Amino acid sequence: MGLAFLFFSMGYDAFTGPIFSQNLIGRGDLRIQDHCKDGAHSLMGYNTNQFPNFFMITGVMTPSALFNIALGIERDAERLSDLVAYMDAHEYVAVEADARI
């Protein structure tokens, strides 16, 4: 069973620009722009509900302004790599933020 993940690193356009410029479609044909029309929703800037296996390093609502960005990106990439390895080892195919958080 294979895994499908999407990691974004799009340059220096602040937060929503790189995300909204893509045609990202989540569960139920929900566009990311529509999902965030009343404000951004994410779990610490990494993941948002309705968009499984979609991760944003230094994304919207991340605490990136509070740490060294290069070291933060490295830490986040390692954390996400560990998550993918865990999911693969346990045959999970999707991960997604809980909307209640």
Total helices: the number is: 3
CA-CA gap between termini: 29 Å
The amount of beta strand, in percent, is 5-15%
Q: Low-confidence stretches at least 5 residues in length (pLDDT < 50)?
A: none
Radius of gyration: 14 Å
Largest sheet: 2 strands, parallel
The strand line-up of the biggest sheet is: 1-2
Structural class designation: mainly alpha
Protein name: Cyclohexanone monooxygenase
GO molecular function, one term: monooxygenase activity
Cofactor: FAD
Keywords: FAD, Flavoprotein, Monooxygenase, NADP, Oxidoreductase
Give the SSE map.
Blueprint: E1 6-8, H1 16-20, H2 32-35, E2 54-56, H3 69-89
Parallel strand pairs: 1-2
Please describe what this structure looks like:
The radius of gyration is 14 Å and the shape is globular. The model has no long low-confidence stretch (mean pLDDT 79). It starts with 5 loop residues before the first strand and ends in a 12-residue tail after the last helix. A two-stranded parallel sheet has the order 1-2. The chain has three helices and two strands, in the order βααβα. It has one domain (6-89). By secondary structure, the protein is mostly helical. InterPro entries: FAD-binding_Monooxygenases, FAD/NAD-bd_sf. GO terms for molecular function: monooxygenase activity. Keywords: FAD, Flavoprotein, Monooxygenase, NADP, Oxidoreductase. This is Cyclohexanone monooxygenase.
Defining traits:
101 residues, mainly alpha, two-stranded parallel sheet
Summed up, what is this model?
30% of the residues lie in helices and 6% in strands. The protein is mainly alpha-helical. It has one domain.
